Amino acid sequence: MSAHEPAPPAIASRSEFGAAILWGQQSALALGARHMLWIDNDFRDWPLDDATLLEGLADWLHLPQRRLVMLARDWSTMRQLHPRFCAWRRAWAHAVSTRTPDDDDAPTLPTLLLDDTRVCVRLVDHSHWRGRCSLDARDTRLLMAEFDALAQRSAPDFPVTQLGL
Q: Phi-psi region for residue 32, left (φ > 0), alpha (ψ -120 to 50) or beta?
């Protein structure tokens, strides 16, 4: 970590988790990440309607070969909990992939934000809001490889638009 990089934040509360997600996204952008992988059971507690997060993602996705993959078990509450994100995503459907893992792969998913450089945000204990952030390239590469394989075995889910009868 260089002198002008902010230290990875601690996660010991729900608000600190939200701040850690923003830190992770901003760090990934600053480090020139091409790919980010976001994993959660339902993204219920992520700050996905935060204007700063959405502006940063839009700026990042304007760059060539950028890709965000989101992996969740349950997408059913996204439209109610994160309407701004869902509206924003319509313009970025070509670069934001939303997927659901195979039922056999993991009964519950971890809560992770990973990039392809060295950024990792991990919520370890949901009930007590405990987690950690790191800029460890080796650990991030190992986690990215593990969960990239999971993403490859997943199926597209959570369409941008809802078709009704």
A: left
Structure tokens belonging to residue 153:
């075995």
- The Cα–Cα gap between 149 and 94 comes to 21
Mean pLDDT over residues 53-79, rounded?
Answer: 96
Sheet of 67-71, strand order: 130-134, 120-125, 111-115, 35-39, 67-71, 96-100, 155-156
Rounded to 10 degrees, the C-alpha dihedral 136/5/30/153 comes to 20
Q: How much is the pTM?
A: 0.92
C-alpha 113/C-alpha 139 separation (Å) is 13
pLDDT of residue 164: 47
Higher pLDDT, 146 or 34: 34
Between CA 33 and CA 17, with CA 71 as vertex, the angle to 5 degrees is 70
47: tokens are 């700050």
